[in-house]
Amino acid sequence: MPEKTDANDAVLSFDLTERPWIEVLRRDGTQDELSLREVFRQAGEVRRIAGDLPTQEFALLRLLLAIAHDAVEGPRDIEHWADLWSDPQCFVRVDEYLDRHQDCFDLFGAEAPFFQTAGLRTAKGEVFSLNRIVADVPNGEPFFSARMPTVDRLGFAEAARWVVHAHAYDTSGIKSGADGDARAQGGKVYPLGVGWAGNLGGLFVEGDTLRETLLLNLVAADTSGLRFETSDRPAWRREPSGPGGAERTPTGVRDLYTWQSRRLRLYADSGGVHGVVLGYGDPLNARNKHVVEPMTAWRRSEAQEKKYGEALVYLPREHDPERAAWRGIASLIADRAESVKEGSNVPARLRPGILEWIARLVTEGELPRHFLVRVRIIGAKYGTQQSVIDEVVEDHLPVAVLLLHQKDRDYAQQAIDAVTDADNAVNALGDLATDLQRAAGIENESPRAAARDRAFGALEGPYHGWLAGLATADDPYEERTRWQRQVYRIVSRLGDQLAADAGEAAWAGRTLPTKQGSVWLNSALAQQWFRTRLGKCLGYPSDSDQPPTPTTAGSSF
């Protein structure tokens, strides 16, 4: 039950520029907690942000990027970025910036508490459980958490992290209507969607240190395909938000990275934060925001084009929790021309703006061709009308920037085609699983799905290793052949194991009709068909791989 109160118990202060609150992983593997000033001062000694959830890491990185963009007033162009990249003290201006705006970063500031609305209250003066902002305990259904079943109290540092996360990833559903919010009906505001980052298939480029990560994702203002207005500024340099919401278009990444999708107020005493008021803030539709949002891939939606009568609509391409990042590499490294469908003159998908930016850096020679980054993939999958977070998606892919080179596409194409090789080989293994089941007189699709999952899992590590070394190869086509041989070996072994485990019924077999007539299908013939399919899809990588030709090789039912 909510408790009733009109104000915090005492005048508090928690200065985020000076007090440690951002969790980080240092290069030596130790964890630490740093203030905003310390994060930028020590960025070269920090490996990465280490949030309570991966989605929190993504939200905090976007906050740091907004500060960096605003502090350096850019980068204006690629030359400005190159100056920052080569300067070990490139973030020295952040200290001066935080001096100027220090009052904006007090978690309990009287007029503009950080990422909150001063005086926010419901008509009845209710204060609610912290479950509403702590995403690993969604509404009493614990998830990744030892805090069961409720969150009674948080320290100021952790509360600050969850405040940032709430604006980015808060769930949808019916929320409390704030006093003064014109959208409230009977004390409630009906669903207006998840926090902005919850719409995205979140993605960023990670370097060896946090300093590299921040700079690699610091997109220049003259980047083609992205809009940066001169009025672009983060939330703390705008007028404090009232209890309602305002419909407007983001002015650029500083605005969008700090988008106030919620109205929020923490309730605390000297012992910590004990309650919250949380409601809807500024709504933002996801259609065609690719011109301001660089940290996601985009897909064309013909259905939305028809619904809204618009010539072209792109929506964020969300992550599929069941599909590993390497299998979707085409959406990351294929350029626009490669994603145009036959008979169309517009791309079906758009590469993330961050990767377009990295492509520009390597094409113009600001990054060496063999420079290796990790593409980090983070997102949330919502359930039950977006009212709960069902899963958090986290994955990574090692990518040499050469694969993004705009004038040298051979390496990228072989990387994409190598995934097709894996897909085709896995399909052949799935067919083997089905054939073995039918040979045993069983109709069951579960073994096929299990075989596919096992094969993709067995190929993921080898693909990562192969991809990381692709850029140093003299001939990408020879590397593709090497990959095909590796796939053949791995999937062949899995096929042998499937046949060995199929049992006596599959070994004995039975008569089944095929397109060419009846055939006695047993595990031996199923294996012959499998070898033929595997060889065809991988181009028989070596002469010794070619199987004997069966009389009805590759028959289908």
TrEMBL record:
Pfam families: CRISPR_Cse1. Residues 231-251 are annotated as: Disordered. Signal peptide: none annotated. InterPro entries: CRISPR-assoc_prot_Cse1 (IPR013381). Residues 231-240 have a biased composition (Basic and acidic residues). It comes from the Bacteria. This is Type I-E CRISPR-associated protein Cse1/CasA.
